[in-house]
């Protein structure tokens, strides 16, 4: 049976393949420590869970507006104003079933044969996968270790051509944990004045996961690009709600209705009780978020210290998210081979850097969304393995 060529260009997120393999090995009796998947190991806070249960008991069992329930869109607007002092009309907020939907919609809108879309490399693999699906040309924006894994505005701007339709940004970043400083964002926005036809999608899903006094710079804070800015955010990381499949996006007036129509055609609406849980997450107590961040910070410091003690390994300090991206070029291994051997031979699940882009060779990604005890055990296994080489 023949399908259109675009489906042959779809890639995948290898973290889920590693998760499946780790599960299979665990089922065979291996003691597996999973530092591969980017998922908080905390429970969704109880008051959020209770809000979903109450919504079900109150009879919220049916369809909702395709754009999301009005109280939730209003709460998103209020939360963005509280945190960034920006005005966002609730009518520009779209509630979606997970962050990937915003990527899919934005790339689908701007990608077509002959177009170019800029994306971070190393970066979240779905960016490139969806760009190639549309037939557009993916243009990698280098994310370099010597810059703390932040993009260079000058380098990014130099990659824009008359064919460029969309720029994808991500800070704090997956997989590297880099945070782009405000000076670079300022320079990028200033340079974009020379390219008024280029849209921007800013993936800010890790916007509350920052350390060492770093502050998030939201692209919403730049009124000069608001008419072409798409914001991606959600609840999965901040509130440990990955399995709830819930996100939100902010769209400019000119294309919001296109996104709404895509929602109507593709998913109708988002799960009703999950939206009431999300409402409680934004409007209820934030103590659990602060507690998670304190624990992530402790794990971050531990994982960097231990990684830098391994033979042939060096690791810059990540400033955001919950990932470390150590340089393993001194071990003599190719990255994917090392990640595979670590899983199969030691039971430590990591992700090879090339799964995040061509510039990921020489690195592996570790998620420190696991306990300090497990992180220490995992890196000790890595030490034993590398010492044998």
TrEMBL record:
Q: Which residues belong to any copy of the Aminotransferase class I/classII large domain?
A: 31-381
Task: Give a Pfam family name.
Answer: Aminotran_1_2
Q: Enumerate the UniProt keywords alphabetically.
A: Aminotransferase, Pyridoxal phosphate, Transferase
Record EC number = 2.6.1.1
Top enzyme class, one word, equals transferase
Taxonomically, which superkingdom? Answer: Bacteria
Cleaved signal peptide residues: none
Q: Return the InterPro entries for the record.
A: Aminotransferase_I/II_large, AspAT/PAT-like, PyrdxlP-dep_Trfase, PyrdxlP-dep_Trfase_major, PyrdxlP-dep_Trfase_small
Give the required cofactors. Answer: pyridoxal 5'-phosphate
Q: Which reaction does it catalyse?
A: L-aspartate + 2-oxoglutarate = oxaloacetate + L-glutamate
GO molecular function terms here?
transaminase activity
Q: Which family does it belong to?
A: Belongs to the class-I pyridoxal-phosphate-dependent aminotransferase family.
Per its UniProt record, what PANTHER family does this chain match? ASPARTATE AMINOTRANSFERASE (PTHR46383)
Its name, as the record gives it, is aspartate transaminase
